Give the backbone structure.
Amino acid sequence: MENEIVLSGIRPTGNLHLGNYFGAVRSFVKMQEEYNCYFFIADWHSLTTHPKPENIQRSARTILAEYLACGIDPEKATIYIQSDVHETIELYLYLNMNTYIGELGRVTTFKEKARRQPDNVNAGLFTYPTLMAADILQHRAKWVPVGKDQEQNMEMARKCARRFNNIYQTEFFPEPQNYYFSGDALKVPGLDGSGKMGKSDGNCIFLIDDEKVVRKKVMRAVTDSGPQTPNSPKPEVIQNLFTMMGIVSTPDTVKYFDEKWNDCSIRYGDMKKQLAEDMVRVMQPIHERIVEFSSNEERLDRIARVGAEKARESAARTLNEVRRIIGFRPY
Ligand code: TYM
């Protein structure tokens, strides 16, 4: 076991979708074998959209059950719920003191969210990146498995680490690095012609979707009238289908349909049928386990309690040191 620390999390705003799985969770499953891992459920971050109190615990349990179904093992990794570790908030405060409103205002996800929810541009949304930095830095994590959409937040986390180190003339925080499952940043596309698969885009294939639903969603994927000339470049909607195929299918399958595209004989119906088939194959074992893990709430709560204890221990250690560096008395 390497001693390098890994941390990552997901907001509990619904079920996990294929973007979450291929962008992040499959890396979690791989990394837990080699690293000291912390995987959490970012329920504080989800407050930016004001969820109802009665949904808070249920949403966290949903993600927890899905983490387990994907293969995250509480014996190997620490799994916890963000709001169980109040130490994070103190670090968040310190990091906010060193972060400038100009740089927070330039974060594209902030600008996008402010556009989408103009009546609710709250300070939590604005300081989202510093809370994320606190999540990471409180364990002094070196690696953070994430999808491409988190690149800018990760840049902010590195800035927070660097700035703290500079201000206090220390090397206390390592600069956390993005980790990508197959080396490159991944953006799992939506199959509705839009850019990425995402909950707020309403274009998701969820791990909880059964075979019939998956097939139906894939068969409805947006296409066009097909290539008119051999070897023409693929428009975005078609490229999205190929990208998805590159993730779930064998290289031979991708090559087969690529050749069909290039000689203008491609039939999108056949391609989608194959894509759905390969998706179902990857998802089925996970799908079955979600039902199994969801049914045992007591077990889920026990896992979250044990995880919280371990996470708090690690966070408290960092926080004490941070307090000492800043000039406060350690607890
Ligand atoms: P969230 O909940 O939006 O997404 C969770 C993870 O899934 C990845 N992801 C994708 N990857 C590729 N293609 C997609 N279409 C796609 N959709 C989602 C995201 O990149 C992410 O890795 N800010 C985070 C949660 C968070 C966090 C952290 C993550 C809070 N604190 C500390 C890492 C470290 C978020 O909202 O992710």
